[in-house]
Design brief:
Blueprint: H1 2-21, H2 39-44, H3 51-59, E1 67-68, H4 69-83, E2 90-92, H5 96-102, H6 111-114, E3 121-123, H7 124-128, H8 133-138, E4 145-146, H9 148-152
Antiparallel strand pairs: 1-4, 2-3
GO molecular function, one term: calcium ion binding
InterPro entries: EF-hand-dom_pair, EF_Hand_1_Ca_BS, EF_hand_dom
Signal peptide: 1-19
Length: 180
């Protein structure tokens, strides 16, 4: 299993490097994808940008540039399963480091934010059922879909919503422990 994860990480790194140089990847930087996400999503997800927006294309399963709650839950499930090293159905404090390394938006995440029953470990539902901060920030009409227009600051809803408070790098948890 670790061998497979290592290979996938190597391929992802090689793909990202190749995409930056234009090496055979579609506009989105993904192999076999002819059209990339709308330009505003692409530019918003460049290195050094907000980690919440930077990680969103990784969980856009159908690569349509619209980020849905279902896609988030599928992605979060994969992260949880890979972090649950002993396969007991829970992620403990030691295993939680795997979640921090899995995605830039979890870099400063704290187990306590997800641990609803305060037992010092996460059940899958505790992790997967938390909304991505992307929805707290950008889902202006609360339809569980973030569109390119919502990312640009337009979209539905009753006008601008207050931006959630995140960690110092925009990730979940941060030094203050309150992701949104």
């Amino acid at each position: 299993m670790r061998y497979l994860i290592s290979i996938l990480l190597c391929l992802a790194t090689a793909g990202a490097a190749s995409a930056q140089s234009g090496g055979g990847f579609g506009a989105s930087g993904l192999p076999g994808v002819g059209e990339g996400p709308p330009p505003d999503i692409h530019s918003a997800n460049r290195p050094g940008a907000d980690p919440v927006r930077q990680s969103a294309p990784a969980w856009d399963a159908n690569r349509d540039g619209i980020f849905t709650c279902d896609e988030w839950k599928q992605y979060a499930t994969r992260i949880f399963i890979s972090a649950d090293l002993n396969r007991d159905g829970y992620v403990d404090a030691k295993e939680f480091d795997g979640i921090r390394r899995a995605d830039p938006s979890f870099k400063n995440a704290e187990l306590g934010y997800f641990d609803d029953n305060h037992d010092g470990r996460l059940a899958r539902a505790e992790f997967v059922d938390k909304k991505s901060p992307l929805f707290a920030r950008y889902d202006r009409n609360n339809d569980c879909r973030v569109t390119a227009e919502e990312l640009r600051g337009g979209g539905g809803g009753d006008g601008p919503r207050a931006r959630p408070t995140l960690g110092s790098d925009g990730g979940m948890g941060g030094s203050i422990g309150v992701p949104f």
